[in-house]
Amino acid sequence: MSKGKFTKRFKENRNARGEEARTVRKIVSIVLLVLIIILVISGLAGYFYVKSALEPVEADSEEKVEVEIPIGSTSSTIATILEENGIIKNGLIFRFYIKLKNESDFQAGVYTFSPAMSMDEIIESLKSGKIVLETAHRVTIPEGLTIEQIAEIYADQFSFTSEEFLEKVNDEKYIKQLIKDYPLLLTDDILNEEIRYPLEGYLFAITYDFYEEDPSIETIVEMMLDQTQAIVSQHFEEIEELDLTMHEVITFASIIEKETGHIDQRNEIAGVFYNRLEADMPLQTDPTVLYAQGEHKDRVLYEDLEIESPYNTYYVEGLPVGPISNFAESSLEAVLNPVESDYYYFLHDHEGNIHFAETLEEHNQNKKNMNDE
């Protein structure tokens, strides 16, 4: 090949490669530009999506939505509840937002929110426990009450009678459904035919706020069971360590509740009862006799002790068939943390003081001393 032809061919190849390179560069530039445009569009779309999700669902809305945040709810649970009720647009964005702002310590309760509320307003309400909804009724249930007494309190506040309340809490179909709904708290033990009221002892004593003018009996019962379960759930691990069933623990707590109103005496009394149980001695506690009789008396007589009832601990061995009242958390804690001692007997004097004894002889002497005063 002549030098001229070689040179010509070289130039042609070089020009072809240059054209190819320019084409590749154009393609790469176009691809990069497209990618940049996609990224910019995605970024803007993401920005506006998040911005929109942080804004009120409907700024001009006057709607009020009642929302219940259960005890123990996580931020994820709260986000889901708010989204399902139309209070926020996106639960995931809500979770990211509160994490970014390091918000926590949200309070359980029944709230009235509006789709017009901002994210910060919702968060502030949840942190402060500010419940917008006005309370229609506030009902206090004291400790140590029977379910019959509880029924009377509610009947005074709402449109149903105490008889209707008691009929509902004795409805076997309803009780079986509650056992399914509260499997950690309620067991088939409460279906025992000898038990007077299946839910006796399980309706917790606190002040309840109602936001309906006339709530159903089911609403009231389940609100109270929710509270009992919330308290008991804090002690599940301790309860599992005991050689007692959940029903026996609730029964035991109710007895401690009725034995003394002095919180500082409860752990010691629990220790005495444990000693009796371990020694196969009858508990012989007067409050169970009164419950067995179904009436209030200031003093238990010797003839009362002979009543043949599964509740009478002078008549049956061990714990009675079921609780005899509701209980305070301190009574439950006494069952879980009894004071260890060698005492098998105790006696209350007229001033509310308690006198313990290791033997029956010491106990009888304490009785004599008290009567001599």
Automatic annotation (TrEMBL):
InterPro entries in alphabetical order: MLTG-like (IPR003770)
Statement: the UniProt record of this protein carries the keyword Lyase: yes
Keyword terms of this UniProt record: Cell membrane, Cell wall biogenesis/degradation, Lyase, Membrane, Transmembrane, Transmembrane helix
Catalyzed chemical reaction(s): a peptidoglycan chain = a peptidoglycan chain with N-acetyl-1,6-anhydromuramyl-[peptide] at the reducing end + a peptidoglycan chain with N-acetylglucosamine at the non-reducing end
Gene Ontology BP annotations: cell wall organization; peptidoglycan biosynthetic process
Membrane protein topology class: Single-pass membrane protein
Family to which this protein belongs: Belongs to the transglycosylase MltG family.
Classification via NCBIfam families: endolytic transglycosylase MltG (TIGR00247)
Protein name: Endolytic murein transglycosylase
Gene for this chain: mltG
